[in-house]
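agent: user wants the full assembly modeled, not chains individually. Plan: 1) parse entity lines 2) check alphabet per entity 3) run joint structure prediction 4) return tokens. Steps 1-2 passed, two entities, 889 residues total. Proceeding.
--- entities ---
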Amino acid sequence: MSKFPNQLALVAVAATSVIALSVGLSERAAHNAEIAAATAQAEADAMAVQTAEAETAEAEAVVTEQVTAEVAEAEMVEEVAEDTVAEAETAAPETVTAEATADTGDTFEGGSSTPALFVGAAWAESHESPMIGELDGISFDLGREALDEEVAAWDIDIRPDGAGLPAGSGDVWTGEEAYIENCAQCHGDFGEGRARWPVLAGGWDTLEHEDPVKTPGSYWPYLSTVWDYVHRAMPYGQAQSLTDDEVYAITAYILYLNNLVDDDFELSQDNFTEVSLPNEDGFFMDDRAEGEIPAFSEEPCMENCKDSVEITMRASVLDVTPEDEQAEATEAAAETTEETATQEAAAEDETTAVAAVDPALVEEGEGVFRKCRACHQVGEGARNGVGPHLNGVLGRTIGGIDGFRYSGVFQEAAEAGEVWGPENLGEYLADPRGAMPGTNMSFAGLRSEEEIAAITAYLSTFEAQ
Amino acid sequence: MDMKFKGMKPSRRSFLTGAAAAGAGSVAATVAKGQTAPDPAITELQDWQVYLGDGVDAAPYGMPSRHERHVVRRTVDWLTADNISSINFTPLHELDGIITPNGVCFERHHSGAAEIDPAEHRLMINGLVDRELVFTMEDLMRFPRENHVYFLECAANTGMEWAGAQLNGCQFTHGMIHNVMYTGIPLKLLLAEAGIKTNAKWILPEGADAAAMTRSIPMEKALDDCLVAFKMNGEALRTEQGYPVRLVVPGWEGNMWVKWLRRIEVGDKPWHHREETSKYTDLLENGEARRFTWEMDAKSVITNPSPQAPLTHGPGYTVLTGVAWSGRGTIPRVDVTLDGGKSWHQARMSGPSLSKSMHRFYFEFEWDGKPLLLQSRAHDSTGYVQPTKDQLREWRGENSIYHNNGIQTWYVNENGEAENVEIS
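--- prediction returned ---
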């Protein structure tokens, strides 16, 4: 049996344009080969000849012979097959198809037997399905050439050697401004990381400690990784919204936060590869094969392996397993009953408004809310994230969620007893920083009145819990 | 976004609430053997015996019985900063056989699950190729395809357990894995279509999601068994698994199986992007880190009994079962111990034994009602034997987060309740 029984399938498949031709012949060839106890390889070669045969008169002769002849000729066929396959590859597919159909007229019987070629002989012998074999130089002629503009639009990655870096530059101070606006919300003003968001600065000399802090300064090997990741995936929820210069500037600022550059530093495509990170040499290639794997490949003990066994650690002591959700919900409900009662009065007006909301507008608003949901939650079980949850936001006191860390301007509004309504919410969403100077919300604003109306309608459907 | 793997402050919940809750959702206790009163389940007419059920099309896309509503993916809130860049876990203790149903395959997103219109999706191949190409989904459907069952395990599976037993339930300790049949195009066919240049040594698959996930993969693997898959278990990929098309990198860590695959760049060096430097590198005790630890070592876990699936029937015959897998081949053998490793028994393997796929094992025994210390130990087809957690720690310390394939221990008490423990 051939090592690659399915190669036969592939060669035939590869010349997809001549499938019609191979159909009638393949069944006969297969049958013939069976009788002759031909090897699968010989069969494959024969197929190759058949599929390519449309191209040359010589090949046609060989095929005719092969279909009726015995395996003894396989070697000769193999040689011819190589030639003819090569020729078939260079032919324009349309031409091949046309000729194939014309040539085979009589032998074509139904056209449904080709799939037999796809099933390798090994199928019955193994649980593993055979892999499709080698296809060197064979084209399916699928897809189209990518345009330069298309490649440029998507190929944004960069490497440690600077490959892929666009022209541009940015300094530490510009970076600080862009960072405070776009990054500090989650990563903290000094890269300390709020809540459980990643820490971006410090962590030096912690890699051998119990709780290592992995930052670009302490752990990351290459600066290009910082640039690439900020550029492709940040800010979280607004990916690829930063200009190249802003990415240079933010990267420079992250270097500064890690004490790796002075405050007058400017990063550009020209000096980029001159910057190396402290832990560049802290990595080595996977070496499990040299140590662990041999150590873990010994026949283990099966009987009388130890005298006594003690429990040394129990998960119940730590007790951090999530509770059953239903129990959790009940518990949460009990906790919030009081809170809900006080909010109900405020929410009442909005509840009546809900009934009149246009469902289409609500649906549109749900789509617009995608821009918000990186930071804000709504619906059942919504909790505070980077931003406060928005259940019952209309009618709620501005800055009114207990325990959420609001900016000063929100705290002032809360103290003044201001309440969110469609109007002030619309103004805020149109221009967050203009309407509430000093807000922590790093969102540029919604572009249109329609979007604001839609999201307001959507938010009005979530009552305070 | 950052996964923390050290413990949080304890909740108010008492020991084994999880087990009790799980028990409540399961089948009613067996009727005692010496029962004299007739069983009303037999003697009384049940509603379903009398009234008509739903007609066809009541559920055009069918869902499991409502009595199985507890069989769901679950997350661990304190692991990540929010639930968009987060992880949830496959309910292994509720499953059997080797195939994971699509709806409960664990999820890991870095910027949420992208919802992509397949008509607007493109796959680009660029870089060190003869022809930079763009394919539509329709184009992709015209390539020859293959079907293979492979496990996908997140490198961080069991990562919370490095410093000790932490989470009570195999869903949480081992549930960052699923095992489905993929239908896809061998990646080598697509690369051959573009024509890779002689200096092409690496590829960089990239996702279309807002994380634009990227990983460097050596060309040798790309040309070996990688698939560009569009179906799982016979139907289209689920949105959260990369619809309309994802990369399949058999036996290698899940993070490399780029979802929502939109581009494959061919290059001569690795890119050292975020997910292969700051993440998915294994920090050792001496402060140095392994990189490019792609293969998943052989591993197994007993799924029943386990903390979420206690023994509720009392002493007598019972079925112990679990799953095993290896990124390097098949699992010809799994050993099981009931006494914490004093003596071991070979488990019975059942179901297809496929390379780089989950395997199912069983060990039936008569429980005498005394406490058990259960462990399973996988052997893979290369001769590798799953190590103990302490053996692993000797090589790696406790800070490496990823690739924790150590032997799991469940302590089962006299009541049949199970707990995650470590033993001497």
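agent: reporting back. The first helix of chain A runs from residue 7 to 14. Residues 1-126, 326-355 of chain A have pLDDT under 50 and may be disordered.
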